[in-house]
Amino acid sequence: MKKLLTMLLLLLGSTVLYPSSSNALPKDTLPVRGFCIAAPMGAGLAPFLKFIREELAPRHINTLVLRVDFNYEYTSHPELRDPGALTKAQVKELVQVCRQHQIRLIPQINLLGHQSWAGTTMNLLKVYPDFDETPWVKMPAKYEWPNADGLYCKSYCPLHPGVHKVVFELVDEVMDAFEATAFHAGMDEVFYLGEDKCPRCGGRDKAELYAGEVWKIRNHLAQKGRTLWIWGDRLLDGKTTGMGMWEASMNNTHRAVDLVPKDIMICDWHYERPDKSPVYFASKGLQVITCPWRKPDNAVAQLKDMYDFRSSATPEMKPRYQGMMQTVWSDAGHFLEEFYGRGKQQADTVNTSANCFRAVFKK
């Protein structure tokens, strides 16, 4: 009896609970317990390091994806740096803290898409405008959606002969600085691809263009034993699924799901509904993590689904269900203000990224 009670206590001591639920889950059974946020600016590094130590580590977060983009003092292309960017010494502080707490650090640079935002052109196309897939689309003085050009974010042309020399030099430098073994290339919400007026890729199959870019990035990383992570929305059929143009593709890139390499990680984000598309990706032979943002109820359902997928899967499918990653779409400084209740209170005090994070990752 004493032995049985001891075993029960050990089991109870190693469980986490769903909010408002009696369902207990074995702790740390998900290979990836992740957090994704924009890298802090250099001036905001200290409070972010404190957040890693005091909030991420106690919640057993083991993966931190930092959206770096041009927020690093690149030496290969100093012309692409953001003002106030992280120095190499500051990045080493991040590396040290994450290593101390067994957190895998993964840098992200948006490749292919997201080369502009609203009315702002990002640094790559600002400095190298000839890389632009749609140079005839001019940035508006006042951005509105929808618009006549279908402009959401600009893309670089994946067939431009000079683009990969530049972006791969950035990738190599940031990977070395972060001492990383995986790289997140973004590649979400690519609306401009294979445009008819593009002299290089006009008229080409958009799925093949997308898959070709994934392969090119993957192969470059593989030369140094590094792996590729991407968002999964462009690999889902927005029309057939009803997921639409944001969380899935309406411009025929979805067929690339059968063309991309099988050793990449798919970050499957769904923010409005807890869609069960991880099953689709796993059935295609791809590793997948599910990614919530700001709705705690949806995130808890997605977490339960991931555990259920793993518990009911065949031995072949189970390793493909890799876990969950909380995403944050404000900058690090604003998120910390929200998380600690120091910023301006949001209109919706329930559906916030901080509440979502607390719901799925208990401290």
Topology of helices and strands:
Layout: H1 2-13, E1 15-17, E2 24-26, E3 32-38, H2 45-56, E4 63-67, H3 88-100, E5 104-111, E6 116-117, E7 120-121, H4 123-127, H5 163-178, E8 182-186, H6 206-222, E9 227-231, H7 238-241, E10 265-269, H8 278-283, E11 287-291, H9 296-312, E12 321-327, H10 332-339, H11 353-360
Parallel strand pairs: 3-4, 3-12, 4-5, 5-8, 8-9, 9-10, 10-11, 11-12
Antiparallel strand pairs: 1-2, 6-7
Helix pairs in contact: 2-3, 9-11
Which tags fit this structure?
two-stranded antiparallel sheet; single chain; 11 helices; disordered N terminus; alpha/beta; 33% helix; hydrolase; globular; TIM Barrel; eight-stranded parallel β-barrel; 363 residues; GH
Task: Explain what you see.
The protein is of the alpha/beta class and about 375 residues long. The protein has a single domain, classed as TIM Barrel, CATH 3.20.20. It contains eleven helices and twelve strands. The strands form three sheets. Strands 3-4-5-8-9-10-11-12 form an eight-stranded parallel barrel, surrounded by five helices. Strands 1-2 form a two-stranded antiparallel sheet. A two-stranded antiparallel ribbon has the order 6-7. Helix 9 links the parallel strand 11 and strand 12 (about 320-325).
Summarize the structure.
The protein is of the alpha/beta class and 363 residues long. The chain is 33% helix and 16% strand.
The pLDDT mean sits at 92
Please state the CA-atom Rg, rounded to the nearest Å.
Answer: 21 Å
By helix and strand content, what is the structural category?
alpha/beta
* Overall CATH architecture: Alpha-Beta Barrel
Write down the CATH class: Alpha Beta
Helix proportion: 25-40%
Biggest β-sheet description? 8 strands, parallel, barrel
Total helical segments: 11
CATH superfamily membership, which one?
A: Glycosidases
Order of helices and strands: HEEEHEHEEEHHEHEHEHEHEHH
Distance between the termini: 32 Å
The shape, in one word, is globular
Low-pLDDT stretches are: 1-25
CATH topology: TIM Barrel
Strand order of the largest sheet: 3-4-5-8-9-10-11-12
Q: How many strands?
A: 12
> For this entry, what is the oligomeric state of its chains?
single chain
- Count up the domains: 1
